[in-house]
Design goal:
Coiled coil: 681-711, 1077-1108
Radius of gyration: 45 Å
Pfam families: AAA_8, AAA_9, DYN_lid, DYNC2H1_AAA_dom, MT
Strand content: 5-15%
InterPro entries: AAA_9, DHC, DYNC2H1-like_lid, DYNC2H1_AAA_dom, Dynein_HC_stalk, Dynein_heavy_chain_D4_dom, P-loop_NTPase
Oligomer: single chain
Strand order of the largest sheet: 6-7-8-5-9
Structural class: alpha/beta
Protein name: Cytoplasmic dynein 2 heavy chain 1
Helix content: 55-70%
Subcellular location: Cell projection, Cilium
Largest sheet: 5 strands, parallel
Number of strands: 17
Distance between the termini: 74 Å
């Protein structure tokens, strides 16, 4: 093996080889070329090697790049131009400029790297190219033309003109030239290109056009667009006349967006001139009707191109500041609001039926568009399945935005945002209205890139062969392989997926297109290119991604077409008003619970920073609605029972004399309660009177404030008016002093004895400055100060006292001629501004003296106003506090308990008997699990999963079929299908993440098939039974949930709490130390809970019997016997509970003697459990710790008494052995 480095084969050797190969070529200038090569080329190469290149290449590659442009040179000018083209081809704009300057000095020639042959417009008049020949285009053409003429390629395929196929047969290529393009290797998502490749390629760097070139390009394009539109509709004449200004506006907005929004802020903030092209060409789609004008169209299309992809209110506001001011300068009245541009429903407008543009956009009012969408939603739901769409104005706007994208040929979208903003639903509706087939992959277990490619094959046949419009919808959870996005990227950019079909499949599939290609005029030379163009036109890709999802940035970087060729729609959370309207729409017709819409919005906003999504807001509203209706129904039922029972008792009261005594006692109690009520009423009245006094005080203060503010305003106006009259004199004098030259001041200082005028003016200045010494020496000293002008200019006239002003006034009276401008200006240029300054400050001082009383009063009024405002704020706060206090008393929310509100004591006791731990966290989790309107995901990291045991026991207790199945099991899919079909309860355990096949079920995407509801599970449609329930359980403390899955489940964590662990360790200690005591306590607790449940059942039975009884209660023997029996049982149960409570207290006293051991144990476990944060190896499970705890109980020695035993157990637990 011989290693050849760049040093082995240097640039000089390559040049010599090239010169020798052309020594016999008479077209080359011989020795002169040798001199140019050695005198200029090698030096130029040294400069190029020392400076960075746009695309990193080897020295060999750079030399070959240059030599390719030196073929056939005859003169030194040709040589210099070729040298510049070859070296500048791989340099950016800044380096290119420096390079050309260096080459000009080196060759003593002016370098021209643009193509002179193409400067003549007639040379490119064939009409086959739509390019505008800017300087950049000419430079690029000049660079690549020699390579295209010689067939130079832009590894085995390039070097050996062929490749080996799958059967290892060498396939040769003839008359094929490879021309490749790529983005800057330093841009996001790009990998370094192999130098082995760049060394054999000719590399040309094409920069973005400059601002001037963009203006040249788009002014020509825009004028052409406006001419075409004006020819069809005279309303566009205004745009034609102002096309130059609109072009400048577009380019200014583009560069403003480039400067303000960078890819570091958001990965899809990639803005290129292609967007300007889209902006200009997009204007062709609009029809001007009503009050809409060309500027409205320019604004709307600009917002669709740029604004729709911006994230956050701040970014939207910044964009509005970029586009609105220049538009308004052209006469734009602003966005009227309440109007949307859409192509949907145009057939309903006769004036648009003759339009040849199939995707023409028309402006609709929000109300009209809402009615249209309502009709289409009903049609969709009749034909397919319910959309559950509420048409807020934000939803209408998003539908119109989606339409503007999907109505374009091949228009694709990238939708970013959290779950629940309605992306899927809006896309389905727009596709339905455009008669598009919507396809979304049906994911099963094992679905991968091979299955996806098969799906794509069918889609491409429908779109490219059959010509059907198809919309491919792909969501986060459906992208199970990164290669899927690569396929989508290829479809968006080129309308094909390389290698998707074999040659035989492709040839068979393309056969029907040959005749159709002939009918359309053979615009494509190959059938496959015709097929690809049809795919690009008919296949619309909609990607729905969550920007907070894992790999979001990597996906965009690796697949540039998702950013560059898709319309990006950033859909964020609903606006506050939108959330309120949405909540009211969901809660309407439900007994007044719609008043809670604002509160629900506020609750959701408190959790937005923690990742709460719009879908979770909808779940919150629906859960509130369900709880409200359930509680309302329960209270209504309870009220009915109570009213019925009380009615029966009232009837019995009239006939039963034995109850009179009890009634009297109750009457006394009622009197006492009445007194309490009157006392409370008195307090409320007093509070209301106090509140009324505060309100009256507030009103008086407000009136006083109004008077004081008016008086203050009048006084301030008078002061400001007088000061304003004098202020210009002061400003003019200060300006004149500031313009005094230092030479003029030095000239005055140099005088041994100054003229009388100068001396008088300086005396006035010194007197105003507060100096008593007005001798010439002191004047010269004053002028010698470097900051003398600043002292005069910044002098505050408020420092002038009455004695100072009197002296200066006397000086002005006696020396009036010295202060006249005409006189003093002839004496000294520097003294004249000072004289004006003295007179102006004297006048200003007089005004200040006159307004001084007004200013003092103004300050007093301001202080009074401030005090009144502070008092007003205090009174308003006191008033609000009083209102809050009184309403709190009325609502009686001080003793509100969430657990008591959401569950009865009987239910909590039943859960405990079913195996639920008794701590508050477990009970709260049980409430959340049983009342959740989304599928619960219970996290139980213990090895003894209490959550599963309790849940299974609870479901069986309700006489429902239940099945427990691991998601890792092969039969999980079958178990899920059967549970859905037959309405069973399925407990899915060992959940580590949400599988894609679960999404339709978790989202509740039910479809209607006749009178049946079905749900998709993988690739199957399963009949949905309303009794089906799904619970998921995970042992992973931190399950890996994607953002798209997090909002589909209700996460509840059954972790170990200090209270629960302490009780568990105490039970273990008592079982070891006093087994009989623990058994007695367990049995006693069981009996207590059973008795309480029986007592609650008896109370319910009693109320039901009274409410449903017929006739006179005293004559209903069965009822009386039942009441007596119930009373006897109730007394027996009550007595049993009383005795049980006494025994329970005694047992607890004995158990508490060992509580210190349990406390110490729980503290130890919770301490070591957190050690995993230091090192992953430090992981300790609860079963391991329980075994250590049991070992400590067994290894400790005997003790004389209980306190000593407790101390011994604690020490053994800590030290691992008895002391």
């Amino acid at each position: 093996m011989i290693f050849l480095s760049e040093g082995t084969l240097g640039p000089a050797a390559l040049v010599e080889k090239w010169l020798r190969s052309g020594a016999e070529d008479e077209s080359k200038p011989g020795r002169r070329l040798d001199a140019w090569m050695h005198g200029c080329l090698l030096k130029a190469l040294d400069w190029a090697f020392d400076n960075p290149q746009a695309v990193e290449a080897t020295q060999v590659g750079v030399v070959e790049n240059v030599l390719s442009h030196l073929e056939g040179v005859q003169t030194k000018q040709d040589f210099a131009n070729g040298l510049g083209k070859g070296l500048a081809a791989n340099a950016d704009a800044e380096r290119r400029k420096l390079l050309l300057e260096h080459l000009a000095r080196l060759t003593s020639q002016s370098i021209e790297i643009n193509s002179p042959a193409l400067r003549d417009p007639d040379s490119s008049s064939s009409g086959d190219c739509d390019a505008v020949l800017t300087e950049g285009v000419l430079r690029t053409l000049s660079m690549v033309t020699p390579w295209l003429e010689t067939g130079t390629p832009f590894l085995m395929l390039i070097t050996y003109k062929g490749f080996y196929d799958t059967s290892l047969e060498f396939v040769s290529l003839q008359s094929i030239q490879i021309v490749a393009s790529m983005m800057d290797p330093n841009s996001l998502g790009r990998s370094a290109v192999s130098k082995r490749l760049t060394s054999i390629m000719r590399i040309g760097y094409m920069a973005y056009p400059t601002r001037q070139e963009l203006k040249q390009i788009y002014s020509e394009m825009l004028s052409g667009v406006f001419k075409d539109l004006a020819a069809e509709d005279a309303s566009w004449q205004q745009g034609l006349h102002s096309s130059a200004a609109i072009c400048s506006l577009m380019i200014d907005v583009y560069f403003g967006v480039l400067k303000r929004f960078s890819v570091e802020e958001c990965r899809h903030y990639v803005f290129t001139p292609r967007m300007l092209t889209q902006w200009v060409n997009g204007l062709r789609r609009y029809g001007l009707h009503g009050s809409a004008g060309p500027l409205d169209v320019v604004y709307h299309e600009g917002c669709r191109i740029f604004r729709d992809r911006l994230v956050g209110c701040e970014a939207l506001t910044d964009f509005d500041r970029l586009i609105l001011p220049p538009l308004k300068a052209l006469g734009f009245a602003g966005d009227p609001g309440g109007f949307f541009w859409t192509s949907l429903g145009l057939s309903a407008q006769p004036q648009l039926q003759t339009s040849e543009r199939r995707s023409q956009l028309s402006r609709w009012s929000s109300g009209d568009l809402n009615e249209l969408f309502q009709e289409k939603i009903k049609s969709y739901e009749r034909e397919h399945n319910p959309l559950n769409m509420i048409l807020l104005e934000e939803v209408v706007e998003r539908i119109s935005r989606f339409d503007s994208c999907l109505s374009l040929p091949g228009g694709s979208m990238l939708l970013t945002g959290p779950n629940g903003v309605g992306r899927r639903t809006c896309v389905k509706l727009v596709a339905y209205m455009h008669h598009m087939e919507v396809f979304s992959p049906q994911l099963t277990r094992g679905y991968g890139i091979r299955n996806f490619r098969e799906d794509l094959k069918e889609l491409l046949i429908r779109a490219g062969i059959e010509g059907q419009p198809v919309c491919l919808v792909l969501e986060d959870h459906q992208i199970v392989d990164a290669s899927m996005l690569e396929c989508v990227n290829s479809i968006i950019s080129g309308g094909e997926v390389p290698g998707l079909m074999t040659n035989e499949e492709l040839e068979k599939a393309l056969e029907p297109l040959k005749g159709q290609m002939a009918e359309e005029g053979f615009h494509h030379t190959k059938v496959f290119s015709f097929f690809a163009s049809r795919v690009k036109r008919n296949l619309h890709v909609v990607l729905s991604l969550d920007p907070n999802g894992e790999g979001y940035c990597r996906r965009l970087e690796s697949n540039p077409s998702l950013v560059s060729r898709c319309f990006i729609q950033c859909l964020e959370h609903w606006s506050p008003d939108g959330m309120v309207h949405l909540a009211k729409a969901l809660l309407q017709n439900n007994g007044g619970c719609g008043d809670a819409a604002d509160d629900l919005k506020n609750v959701h906003q408190t959790m937005t920073d923690r990742g709460a999504t719009p879908r979770q807001f909808v779940s919150l509203v629906n859960l509130f609605k369900a709880i409200f209706l359930t509680k309302q129904e329960n209270l209504t039922e309870q009220k009915r029972f109570l009213e019925g029972g009380l009615g029966k008792l009232s009837e019995a009261e009239k006939t039963v004399d034995d109850l009179s005594k009890g009634a009297e006692e109750r009457r006394s109690l009622l009197v006492a309660k009445q007194c309490e009520a009157e006392d409370a009423l008195h307090k409320i009245t007093s509070s209301m009177e106090q509140a009324a006094e505060r309100k009256q005080e507030v009103e008086n203060i407000q009136k006083k404030l109004a008077v004081e503010e008016m008086e203050l305003s009048q006084k301030r106006g008078g002061v400001e008016e007088e000061l304003t009259a004098v202020q210009p004199l002061i400003d003019q004098a200060r300006k004149a002093v500031g313009q005094i030259k230092p030479d003029n001041i030095n000239e005055i200082r140099s005088l041994k004895m100054p003229p009388e005028g100068i001396r008088d003016v300086l005396e006035g200045v010194l007197l105003l400055m507060g100096q008593k010494d007005t001798s010439w020496n002191n004047m010269r000293k004053f002028l010698a100060n470097k900051s003398v002008k600043d002292q005069i200019i910044n002098y505050d006239a408020r420092k002038i006292t009455h004695p100072m002003r009197s002296k200066v006034e006397k000086l002005l009276q006696s020396k009036a001629a010295s202060f006249e401008h005409a006189n003093i200006y002839h004496v000294s240029v520097a003294a004249a501004p000072m004289a004006s300054w003295v007179k102006a400050n004297l006048e200003f001082s007089k005004v200040l003296e006159n307004v001084a009383p007004l200013e003092d009063k103004l300050q007093g009024l301001t202080a009074s106003l401030k005090a009144s405002q502070d008092r007003l704020i205090t009174c308003e706060e006191d008033l609000a506090a009083l209102d809050q206090q009184e309403w709190s008393k009325v609502l009686r929310t001080d003793d509100f308990n969430f657990l008591r509100f959401m569950s009865t004591e009987s239910e909590r006791l039943t859960w405990k008997l079913e195996g639920l731990p008794g701590d508050n966290l477990s009970v709260e989790n049980a409430v959340a699990v049983l009342h959740s309107n989304v599928v619960p995901l219970m996290v139980d990291p213990t090895n003894t999963p209490q959550a599963i045991k309790w849940l299974e026991s609870h479901v069986r207790h309700e006489n429902k079929a239940v099945e427990v199945c691991s998601t890792q099991s092969e039969r999980f899919g079958t178990s899920l299908e059967l549970a859905i079909r037959f309405g069973k309860t399925l407990i899915a355990q060992d959940v580590s993440s949400i599988e894609p096949l679960m999404y339709p079920l978790l989202r509740g995407d039910l479809e209607t098939r006749g009178h049946r509801s079905v749900v998709r599970v993988g690739d199957k449609l399963v009949d949905y039974n309303e009794s089906f329930r799904l619970f998921m359980v995970s042992r992973d403390p931190t399950p890996r949930l994607a953002p798209s899955a997090r909002s589909l489940v209700a996460l509840t964590t059954f972790t170990i709490t200090r209270e629960g662990l302490e009780g568990q360790l105490l039970s273990l200690t008592i079982q070891h130390e006093q087994p009989g005591l623990e058994r007695q306590r367990t049995e006693l607790l069981r009996q207590e809970e059973e008795l309480k449940i029986q007592l609650a059942a008896l109370e319910k039975q009693l109320l039901h019997a009274l409410a449903t009884s017929e006739g006179n209660v005293l004559e209903n023997k069965d009822l009386l016997e039942s009441l007596n029996e119930t009373k006897a049982k109730s007394l027996t149960i009550q007595d049993g509970l009383t005795k049980s409570a006494e025994v329970h207290r005694s047992l607890d006293e004995q158990r508490n003697l060992y509580r210190h051991v349990a406390e110490r144990g729980s503290q130890m476990f919770l301490a070591v459990k957190d050690l995993s944060a230091i090192n992953h190896m430090y992981r300790f499970s609860l079963p391991w710790f329980l075994s250590i705890f049991r070992k400590a109980l067994h290894t400790s020695g005997p003790s004389a008494d209980v306190p000593s035993r407790v101390s011994l157990l604690s020490n053994t637990l800590i030290e691992g052995h008895p002391p």
